[in-house]
């Protein structure tokens, strides 16, 4: 673009930040969980990632900066809590794919954790958002584990979600009302 006086403004390079992929789904779930707590409906929280801090820079007490840290143990799933006296545990993932959800996004220790919670009668599921399609699904642990046992595919096709998972609609409060599906799963207790 040419400005008066011969000053030329160049286009700024677009910087792609991959560090916060999936944050919009996470933000929606966090806002939903905050709403559920405010109305005393459920107490579900984001689990912190277990890290050990090994190096901190202290320019001043209120400006400490973590310089080095590492994961102490593999984390399990993203969220857990209580609803109607039942234990809830779930993983949330977002994909830009319009055709499938890659299973490499769910780690073996997470699958094992999902199996263990399911086997102990906890309510466990995945919330998967296909961001480019604007579709968010709740996939029960039972359906997910059956798919893993019966398929050798490295991804779950979108058509599988459309046929076997629950479509979650976006709203205002809560942003994602996944507890309506949980009510169906537990029989409206």
Mind explaining what this structure looks like?
This protein is an alpha+beta fold and 189 residues long. It has a single domain, classed as Trna Endonuclease, Chain: A, domain 1 (3-Layer(aba) Sandwich). It contains five helices and ten strands. The longest helix is centred in the N-terminal third of the chain and has 16 residues, at 23-38. The chain is globular, with a radius of gyration of 21 Å.
Mean pLDDT: 85
Compute the number of helices: 5
Q: What is the tally of beta strands?
A: 10
Coarse shape? globular
Described by strand count, sense and barrel closure, the largest sheet is: 6 strands, mixed
Could you estimate the helical fraction of the residues in percent? Answer: 25-40%
Would you tell me which CATH topology applies? Trna Endonuclease, Chain: A, domain 1
The SSE order reads HEEEEEEHEEHEHEH
């Amino acid at each position: 673009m040419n400005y008066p006086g011969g000053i030329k403004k160049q286009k700024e390079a677009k910087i792609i930040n991959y560090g916060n992929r999936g944050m919009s789904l996470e933000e929606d779930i966090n806002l939903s969980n905050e709403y559920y707590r405010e109305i005393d409906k459920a107490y579900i929280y984001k689990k912190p990632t277990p890290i050990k801090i090994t190096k901190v820079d202290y320019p001043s007490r209120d400006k400490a900066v973590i310089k080095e840290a590492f994961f102490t143990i593999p984390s399990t799933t993203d969220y857990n809590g209580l609803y109607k006296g039942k234990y809830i545990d779930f993983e949330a993932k977002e994909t830009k794919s319009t055709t499938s959800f890659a299973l490499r996004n769910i780690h073996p220790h997470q699958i094992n954790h999902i199996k263990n919670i399911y086997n102990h009668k906890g309510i466990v599921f995945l919330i998967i958002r296909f961001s480019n399609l604007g579709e968010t699904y709740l996939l029960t642990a039972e359906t997910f584990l059956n798919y893993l046992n019966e398929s050798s595919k490295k991804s779950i096709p979108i058509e599988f979600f459309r046929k076997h998972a629950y479509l979650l609609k976006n709203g205002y409060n809560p942003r994602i009302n996944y507890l309506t599906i949980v009510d169906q799963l537990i029989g409206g207790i």
